[in-house]
Amino acid sequence: MESTSQGPMPCGSFSHVGTFETILQRLCRAHDLTLEHNRPTDDIVFHSLDIRVVAIYGSEDHPIGAERRFRLHMTDDKACTLAPVSVDTKRYASRLQRWRVRQWVRRLDG
Predict the structure, then answer these.
(1) pTM of the predicted model over 0.85
(2) Strands (DSSP E) along the chain, which ranges?
(3) String of b and e for 50-85 (b: at least 16 CB within 10 Å)?
(4) Which end of the chain is less congested by CB atoms within 10 angstroms, N or C?
(5) pLDDT tens for residues 44-80?
(6) Domain residues for 58?
(7) Does 102 reside within a domain?
(8) Are 51 and 2 in contact (CB under 8 A)?
(9) 58 domain-assigned
């Protein structure tokens, strides 16, 4: 799992984390996996990619989160394609869900 910390951002702004291809490449470098045409060269098969976002906004003291899963599919022409598993992004805003978001952050800090 990799994190990107952006720090405080102006109201209404956004941060571009890169393309899915660059995210996949960054993850593989972090885990010493070699890619060729966005496919691992070993016997490893990608199944899914989860994107998680953690944010604290306004006067809130507790983080909120969001998560979306994408299915990765290896095509016959040696390409890797992805498609969202659902049309919705899962939001983590309730008290229990915010606790889960804090656990994400603790695992990254650990």
Answers:
(1) no
(2) 35-36, 39-40, 48-55, 64-74, 80-84, 90-92
(3) eebbbeeeeeeeebbbebbbbebebeeeeebebeee
(4) C
(5) 888 898 998 888 877 777 888 999 999 988 777 767 7
(6) 20-109
(7) yes
(8) no
(9) yes
